Amino acid sequence: MSSDASTTVSQPADTRQIFRREQRTLLIQMVLLAVFVLVMGQMTVSWISLIGFEQELDPQLQRKANAVGNSLSGQLAYATRDLEIPVADLVGVEEFFDNILAANDDLAYLTLVDSKGTVLFVSSANPGDMEDVLQDMPAEGVSGSHSTTVMNEHTDVAFPVAGGSQPDSTLHVGIHSDQLRNHLIEVFWEVITVIVICWLVTFEFLLFLIVARVEKPIELIQRAMADGADGRFANWLVVRSNDEVGQLTASFNRTLQHLRHRYNDFLFDARETKDAQIDTQIAAQISAVRQGIDNRFRFQRGDELQSRTPARIRVPLFLFIFSEELSRSFLPLFVQRYAPTDLMISSDVLIGLPITLFMVAAMIATPIGGGFVDRVGVRWVFLVGIFAAVVGFVGNFLTQGYYDLVIYRVVTGIGYGLVFIASEGWVTQNAQRYNRASSTGVFVAAVFAGIICGPPIGGIFADRFGFEATFLISAMLAIVSGFIIFQVFRESEGSQQSAANQSSLKLMIGVRDWITLLKDPKFVSVLMFAAIPGKMMVAGFIAYLVPLYLNDLGHGQPAIGRILMIYGVATLLCLTLPARFADRTERYRQMVVLGATIAGAGCIAALLTNYHGNASFAVVLAIGSLGVGHALTLTSQNSIIQQVAERYRDTLGRASVVGAYRLCERIGMVIGPLVAVALITAFGYQGAIVGFGVILLGLIGLFVLTDRSAAGRTG
Amino acid sequence: MARKYFIKHLAIVSFLVAGLLVGQPSAQSQTNLADRSEPFEIFAVVWRGETEVEAGFKDYLNQRGIPYTMTIRSLELDRSNAPPIVAEIQQAQPDLVYTWGTGTTRSIVGPLNAEDPGKFVQGIPGIFVLVAYPISAKIVESFEQTGRPITGVSFLASIESQLKAIIDYGKFTKLAVIYDNTSSNSRINVASLEEAAPQFGLELVVLPVPLGDNEKPDPAKLPELIQDAKQQGADILYMGPDSFLTRHADVYTSEAIAVGLPTFASTQAPLKGSRAMFGLVSDYHTLGKLAAVQAEKILLGKQNPENLPVASLARFKLWINIDVVKEIEIYPPMNMIAIADFKTSPIN
């Protein structure tokens, strides 16, 4: 899941990297311009339509109040004026009002007040509020057709009720003022969601196109030209596209080819001339000149120049993560529908089980897939993983009962694990030379784009087409992702043994090595008190508790998806700067502590805000702080583990240490839903959020203590 | 899968289109019939002069453009006036005979299996209106299959909707019914009340009118019976389709008002002609239109009335006499005011 993203390690950028960064101005300008224009356009259109909406909605509510008020006052006047029933003797007025309120949920209350200001009949959607309302309500009668008074939470529209021979009375129609505001806020968030998602998708695809089709080929040509400046003309460029840049590379290749032909012609001439010489001295001179040329230029035994960019993984990986995240907002609710109730196990546990087993499956599939990456190459592990995921999605689409639901989730989990390890392998292999840090960035960005876009879009799909159909959409997206991998990744790519051996994929270490690692206090403390709790929050809080709780609070699927999106957005926004700061100052521990504190404090703050009656806001706050907290800790945790691994470089090997760490931290994902079930059972949803916060803070406290003592021992 | 689905879909659509195309000509032929130059002859016999029912009947036929001539005769409240009219009808051989009320219908077209069928109109399609209980009056065998070439429209709201209207008024718990025990109509009515009232949580007081010297119910006993009902704790009187009570409705309702009891009526007469407080009744104009729909089916559709079920209205009129309400000071609830028809009773 999410934090798996930061697998590869940030390393100090070398000079070449810096050189490349300066080169990228065109790319950055283009992407920024496109996104800027897009955002500006979207914001303008959204703003205009929001204003139009507001202008439409307000009078519409007024009109509705008028329609109801005129009709009601007419009927009441019929009773008092035409039938001459004394207004105080009217019967069943409150039932009559109740019917009207039940049919119009925009209306807050209806009251009938006689000419002396005595309230005769009251009907209210929210009877608790009525005392305040009756005090605020204008006491004087109405002149003209109606009069509107804006009060605290309501707008009151008063209508005269003709009494005929008796004095006129007054009908008050109350509208919820916040009704309008709520409508607008709802629309506003929908617009923001769409803008953010458009932005991310545009960015992803634009970057994919530009990097793969323009930037990388140009970089290759540049390298070939630099080679040419050094006299090396033997290499050729491998670019397969047939677009403008592809044509340029092709003609460049032709130029090199012609040069090589000419060189061969020259060699032939030289040999002919040399062979024709009787004078050995002249022949030696010719040989010397030829040798001199060969020393200065190289035309033979060239290499393929190929671009290795991890950026090509972006779109397929994004699509895959997106497809899995589509079900994020409703998975527990989906499971709830099928969970058997006649078992000894509580249904909460049964709902959490598919999430846990998904994680277990992914966890087991990861090292196995790592082994396969070495043997059959990244491409095939990718394709097998995607195939498994598609089978799982389709299985969930056809779900008949709880058990096959769980089995297909496990199948999807296996696919998920395989795709993840294949992506890691791909990034490692393609990033080995000089751009390791930015490769990690590519990986993280694609994963988080998926995490951000998946839940809200999936929520909308689930709302419109149902849970099952959303799994079918997931399957189709995963197929598209597989198709891109199949097309874009070459047979030969990603199977280089050398690369795989260097990768962090080899996880199988012996029992003795495990004991060594588990005795290392630094390793254990960062694992137990920072990494595992982080994963636990993702699986237990984000994936399990939040969808169930928000559903319980009455939110629909799109709203749940939007709120879940906050996690991804918060993480992505806060990822870069703290990581740079930590790198520069090497304050990794402090950053981990700060992140966990923010996350824990955010969950506990939920308790406080909750007392103001807004339970949903408490969830938003907790999710947001969790996102920020994870952003702070992710890279720093990795750096700490790298430091640990460095010490075992000559004994266990760095890769093994990192691999062991990755495997262990996923324990958090397995226990997450179970912890959530236990907390919810004991304290209810709100208490469980606070409980998560307390756990985070407690563990990070232990981290500080153990880390200090460890530092004391080693230092 | 998708293809199979598509074919199925296509089949349904084709079927519908075909149905429309085939259905069209038959509708066409019906309108053609309406254009026939010779008008239908309708012979109507009423009890006491023309009513709103006949107006509604004619309105509908005129709206539909059905050509007809209508001859109207009245029995003037006396069955002995019937034989000459029967003879006149036999002579004229109209396309349709229309009869108003139980008495009229029985004396013009006769009861089912009459001993001397020669005294009644035979072999001409008939329509009756304002017959409360056509089965027990032996006019038809059942509402679905009438058993003879006669059909009609029923004009009473179901006993359940009547009791619901009483409940909805919100004040009444004990219902007293004073009735003519010699009339089968009334006995049927009381029996169904006894069955339905408990379901609505209503108590029922049943008071048959004692017979006088002539073996007929004695109208002089009515004030006594109303007092009796009041003493037994009744808070409302119920007046069914009872011709004896309808005849004495003025005395009955005025006496009821005098002791502060409202009267609920299931027919229009005690509301329109006397001082019943409220009732659930059919609108006579609409009822006439409904009868005309039946007539159209017989005349244009060439359907045998025997196979035409007795039709009934889907909606009834909640009639409230506001002057009586004010006099007794039992006001209807707002929900009822919103849907009721308020009238003023004729005050003697």
Describe this structure in words.
The complex is a heterodimer of chains A (715) and B (348). Chain A has 715 residues and is mainly α. Among the domains of chain A are: 57-182, Profilin-like, CATH 3.40.1840.10; 246-301; 507-715, Growth Hormone, Chain: A (Up-down Bundle), CATH 1.20.1250. Chain A has 22 helices and seven strands. Chain A has a five-stranded antiparallel sheet, sandwiched between helices. A two-stranded parallel sheet of chain A has the order 6-7. With 348 residues, chain B is of the alpha/beta class. Chain B folds into two domains: 38-155 and 284-312, Response regulator (Rossmann fold), CATH 3.40.50; 159-281 and 317-343, Rossmann fold. Chain B is globular and about 60 Å long. Chain A binds chain B through residues 75-76, 78-79, 82-85, 89-93, 95-96, 99, and chain B through 170, 322, 325-326, 329, 331-338, 342.
List the helices and strands and how they pair.
The complex is a heterodimer of chains A (715) and B (348).
Chain A: H1 15-23, H2 25-82, H3 93-103, E1 107-113, E2 119-124, H4 130-136, E3 147-150, E4 154-161, E5 169-176, H5 177-229, E6 236-237, H6 244-276, H7 280-296, E7 304-305, H8 314-325, H9 331-338, H10 347-376, H11 378-397, H12 402-430, H13 436-465, H14 467-488, H15 497-502, H16 511-519, H17 521-552, H18 557-585, H19 588-610, H20 615-647, H21 654-665, H22 667-714
Parallel strand pairs in A: 6-7
Antiparallel strand pairs in A: 1-2, 1-5, 3-4, 4-5
Chain B: H1 2-34, E1 40-46, H2 52-63, E2 68-74, H3 82-92, E3 96-100, H4 102-108, E4 126-129, E5 150-154, H5 159-168, E6 174-179, H6 184-196, E7 203-208, H7 222-231, E8 236-239, H8 243-247, H9 249-258, E9 263-265, H10 269-272, E10 278-281, H11 284-299, E11 311-312, E12 317-321, H12 322-328, H13 334-337, E13 341-343
Parallel strand pairs in B: 1-2, 1-3, 3-4, 4-5, 5-11, 6-7, 6-8, 8-9, 9-10, 12-13
Antiparallel strand pairs in B: 10-12
Helix pairs in contact in B: 2-11, 7-9
